[in-house]
Queue: 2 jobs
Job 1
Amino acid sequence: MDLEVSNSYHQQGVGIVGAGLVGCLAALAFNAKGFSVTLFEYRDDPSKTKNDNLRSINLAVSARGIRALKYVDEEMAERILEHIIPMKGRMIHDLDGNQTSQLYGLFGEAINSIDRSFLNECLLEEIRHTDIKVLFNHKLVAFEKNHGEDQTPKMTFIDTSEGDAASKTFEFDYIVGADGAHSQFRTQLQRTMRMNYSQEYIDMQYIELYIPPSESAKDDSKFLLNPNHLHIWPRTNHMLIALANKDGSFTCTFFSPWSVIEGITSTEQWISFFKKNFKDAYDLIGEARLATVYETHPRGSLLQVNVYPYHSPDGRAILLGDAAHSMVPFYGQGMNCGFEDVRTLMELIDEKGGDVLEAFRSYTEIRKADLDAICKLALDNYHEMSHKVTSLWYLTRKRIDSL
Ligand code: FAD
């Protein structure tokens, strides 16, 4: 169902913590309904700073995520979808570099590759054409639920752009915490209510790598691998994947248990490990780039976070996206689910005739079973792999089959 623009709930202020993927979509969705929205982000404005985030992941956008984007704004979704690269199958690379294509379906069914930072910037660009107020360099440090007689929640931020790191306080009718897996808003909210919370790290790390475009860049030949496949180098307990970017490059992710990466103690060992296990990728990435990756790129942890309930008892605050349900990435649904959170909440706001308190309460009730299920599937898949199958290839197949 498309957003009914006639539903306009003016003059109610919504403060959103975190201008990541989910916070941005939530801001656009509330704004489209006529709420006055302020979006707070810890980082600097990416349009004004060089992107030195070495953890820029390529995401698979699935039907779930696309439906939510279209729900918020059909035209915006079309603008964003212009930048995706459909992947119609997986391409398996064996140890000798032989490639085998496995199509997902008989009718061109595809999952879609997009760079996470780029998608985030697309959403921020959409926000620039609205009256949403965005405050970058604002780090949430405190939350108080009951302030004054009207019970308006208040949040305190440190403005890191100011020399003396000034602290500022804001009041809103409603607050959305969308500040990711390590959510400070969640920590603050937990002090004020009985919220169940669990966190589990899995024994797996990831590192980002990069395959450049072909130097003889002419039309399709700019891609060194087939762009319409998800490339997978499955090995016994580790794997490499690569997803295409529009500029002809590929973003790769190397996943392994921590013991594998920690057992590699020098750049030379890393390069020979890579050459042995991923010979064709080694040729495409190049030794110099591999050395830089080993020496400078961060190793990411993977964790699952679950909370219950998602909203505060007074109905003024709610957690969306990874702040509420960070999941391990082997189902490729973290962001897609976060986008679905936004659509579900907006549908409830309409259903409740603009009563946000009621919508927040109902959200917890109706969303829990679905979120529990998808987080469990993602984690079970990891456990199944690590205890029974010991093959990341098995895990990858299950992830892709689920999209
Ligand atoms: P985030 O993207 O973490 O954004 C949170 C924002 O809050 C950030 O901008 C942060 O700077 C800001 N913030 C944090 N603290 C504060 C504070 N105190 N004050 C103010 N702002 C703050 N998902 C998919 O759907 N498909 C995939 O294929 C997929 N692949 C993945 C692969 C890997 C390796 C990983 C790690 C994840 C993958 N995911 C995938 C998951 C996806 O990346 C996340 O689910 C998604 O980024 C969550 O978005 P979010 O907006 O909730 O949180």
Note: The first helix runs from residue 21 to 32.
Job 2
Amino acid sequence: MLAMDAVTRKHHTNHHFRELFSRHPANPILTAANWPYPANSVFNAGATQLANGETLLLARVEDRRGISHLTAARSADGITDWRIDPRPTMPAMPESCPEEIWGIEDPRIVWLEDVQRFSVTYTAYSRLGPLVALALTDDFKTFERRGPIMPPEDKDAAFFPRKFDGRWALIHRPVPNVPGAKAHMWLSFSPDLKHWGDHMVLLEARDGAYWDAGKIGLSPPPIETPEGWLIMYHGVRRTPAGALYRLGLALLDLEDPRRVLRRGEEWVFSPQEQYEMVGDVADVVFPCGTIAQGDELRIYYGAADTSIALATAKISDLLAWLRTEGGQAHGPADLSDQFAGAQDQRLIRPG
Ligand code: BMA
């Protein structure tokens, strides 16, 4: 039998790259074995810091039917001594919300300043495919469900924490129902969290052999930094052995998030460890939440659709990397430049 180490990629990793992310030695930090009730897998958790300083994770928990719900776990240091709700915190409610018939998945949490509540944008798995749904909460005990905000197929959605010119902005990832069409990240605006418009492609999936060709999506919600909104996104590389989920970085203008200031060409985080390479879905790192403490960013990610793991990175290192490796993705001075090479954008943009 092969030793466990034989299945980690790190043993044949080229060491000339500067690694920006450090995995926590206790990884995976939460698994189904830690759960207070029967669960197949726990992964893809949203994250936020509560007013009392505690870290709250809202984990996706999949049962043995294959249906997911969300359950809160709280910890003082965000690493150990998790207090996990003894039953599903936010079960799917298909009786009152038919779009949740096949469960709810992959929450992203953002504190909305003007509303003074947390938004939870999540995937509701409807009969017509995954869609983006919204719930608001004060305490992660009770949730006000606002229902679908984007029709299927659409997922990987999160708000920015504040409005731009009086409107909320949402990043999301619709999948066009056209054979061969790519799945890009989109940006949409709303005055009231209910009515949406001015939809535009924000970041395009690349082409060909690229790590982020064909399909990309927002990972954690946008992170505000002095240089812009730091965006971590996942790219899906399809291979004969399956799909590889890896992470890349981009930077958006602070005052106008339609402007992409930088985008890295290379991925920065990828499945390397056994718990990321082996599980219900092999070769997946899938963060849905971060917590910033000063310059240190704690990144909570789903590993192989099976467990929750933690990595840390310095925000200043990620920004420095984008400065040197991030090119000038789209000229910030002239938004129309952004669409110069964007074939798909031309098709949906008037004028
Ligand atoms: C994506 C999402 C994630 C999942 C990933 C890998 O499409 O459904 O929930 O982690 O696939 O299976």
Note: The chain has one domain: 36-347.
